[in-house]
Amino acid sequence: MAEKGKMNIGHLGGVARLREENEKVVKDCESRIQHWQKVSGDYEALNERLKTLPDQLSYDIMVPFGPLAFMPGKLVHTNEVTALLGDNWFAKCSAKQAQKVVDHRMKYVKHELDDLSKTMKNFEARVGLAKDLETISSSKGDYVDIREDTGNDDAAVTKGKQRIARKPHSMPKMDAVLDLKEENGGGSGDGGSRNGTLTEEELWARLDELEKLEELQDEQDRLSDNADVNGEDTSSVSSEEEKEGDAAPPVNGLSLKPSWTSRPHSEAPPSADRKAGEDDEEEQEEGSCLPTIFFSHTIEPKKVRINTGKNTMFKFSERKEQKEHSKKKKKNGHNNGHSHHELHKITTPVDIYRLFVDVKNGEPVPRKSILKSRSRENSVCSDTSESSAADFDERRVIGRSFSHDEATHSDTSDDSPTGVPLHPASRFEAFSGTVVEKEPMPSAVPHLTIAPPALPTILERKQEEVAPDVVPPQQAPKRVSKFKAARLQQV
Amino acid sequence: MAEAIQKKLKAEVEKYTQMQKDVSKSMSARQKLETQLTENNIVKEELDLLGSTNTVYKLIGPVLVKQDLDEAKATVTKRLEYINGEIQRYETVLKDMEKKSEQHREVLSSLQQEFQRAQGLAVGKV
Asked: Could you state a single Gene Ontology molecular function term (chain B) (predicted)?
């Protein structure tokens, strides 16, 4: 209360002073207006006199003679006036002209008066406001001043700022943490420690998510294994063979279709597959059970890639997440390879075509064969040079991931860009025949692992979208497939 | 310590007051020029009212000197130009002075704080 009283007093003093100043201005204006009114009256009198002066030729007047005396005299030249214009300028003029000058002066005076009256009104209003303020602030009860202490606000403001700042920082940190996990894998203790220290809760949440994903994957893998292996393999093999025979020779574009060029290599050299797959052949054995030789070759490379990928995954990126989630996988490396391999089939466009075959037995067969040939190509590429094959797979996976899985799997999208740049170089490498298995693999692995869970939802879409997905690798086959597809749709 | 600061403060205050005087002087000069400007404007307008038959005089000292009307108009316009130029000059001078006085004020306030601190220290020491 004491403070309030002081504040009021200070406030009142300010208001009072404001009022006083305003009143001063008003008074000044009033005095000036009086002055100008007097001037205006003088001019009016002068004007009157000038009007009547030339009426007579001469006037008898008392002429002032010095300060004390007057003497009688006559005023002649009644129509002749010397007017002081100002700044010591004089002009001899007739009474009429003098009147004009006087009118001119009157205008000026009127203008001044108007201005002064305006300003006076303005300041009178201000005085009234100041008076009201005074009465309001002085009179207690009716009105209450709302005052807030600013001292406490600073702290609150700073708190808010800090919070705001934290969010942007924390968000990138989280991403960085995830990246670090992926990049550093289990190898770097520093990264692990950072992750743990920075965002333990989130880490754990992330781990739980991954676990769920893995479970889903496993289920899907089982399902897909049963379905895909049984139906797709045989049909796909036959169709692939046909297509290879038809499509491979005409398509010579090296730049466009590295996969095509690579095909012959792959077909001819199972040895390449073996080279690549030597490490993984053990795991591939399960896949190699397929009846046809071609099939085994084509499939094997895929498996090889997958296996290598997984191996690399496990070896290089034994991440905390993966460690926990993929314990089963680690234990059952072969099983994983199987599941992934089959998953790959599903994930790749080839798988989709297989689905087509199943759905539409009569007409779509050529399509299937083309697509399958691609898949074969890919597989072949993988055989000759695993890196190239892996790249293709990655591509497909990436495309899918971008189109369908972006929302669901941020990791896939993150990983895919890293994998993309590798493609061109890897292709060339593939041609050269050199095999860089492990480098491309790690990038590919995450796609593979992550992609499967999204598959079930995507399958239907994929059937529809197969054409766009296929487009990038082979343009010619696409067009054919598109037309056919259009016809089919129309029918 | 405090005494030295006090001396400085005094010198600064004197400078500041001098500056204020200058400011007020130039301010009043400018106001005079303003009134002259309005007066001359009126003269010019009223000269325009007159015809060639009218004779114009200029009061120089105690005598009225007859002047040609056109000549008078020319001199009045010249005078107006001159006054306008003077007003602008004063305007710049005033701005300059205001800046300087602002600086002086800052220096003064800082000096005052120093002085007060020095006094407080002295008191504490005593």
From this structure: unfolded protein binding
How far, CA to CA in Å, does A488 sit from each of A255, A460, A491?
31, 17, 5
Range of the domain at B88: 55-110
A34-125, CATH topology level: Helix Hairpins (1.10.287)
A89 contacts in B (CB within 8 Å)? 43, 47, 56-59, 72, 76
Could you report the predicted ipTM of this complex, rounded to two decimals? 0.79
pLDDT per residue as tens digits for the range A15-52: 888 888 889 999 999 999 999 999 999 999 999 999 99
Q: Are A256 and A247 in contact (CB under 8 A)?
A: no
d(CA A126, CA A120): 10
Paired tokens of B122? 């002295």
- Greater pLDDT, B49 or A394: B49
A248-279 pLDDT per residue, tens? 444 343 344 344 434 444 444 444 444 444 44
- How far apart are the C-alpha atoms of A252 and B70, rounded to whole Å? 101
Question: In chain A, which residue's Cα lies nearest the Cα of B44?
Answer: A85
Closest CA to B104 of B2, B1, B17: B17
Q: How far away is chain A from the Cα of B39, in angstroms, using its nearest Cα?
A: 6
How far apart CA A384 and CA A372 sit, in angstroms, is: 18
- Residue pointed to by tokens 């965002």: A199
- Domain spans in chain A, listed from the N-terminal domain onward: 34-125
Tell me the shortest Cα–Cα distance from A108 to chain B, in angstroms: 9
Contact B50 A91 (CB under 8 A): yes
CA atoms within 13 A on the CB side of A169: 8
Confirm whether B101 is domain-assigned. yes
Please give the model's pTM, rounded to 2 decimal places: 0.41
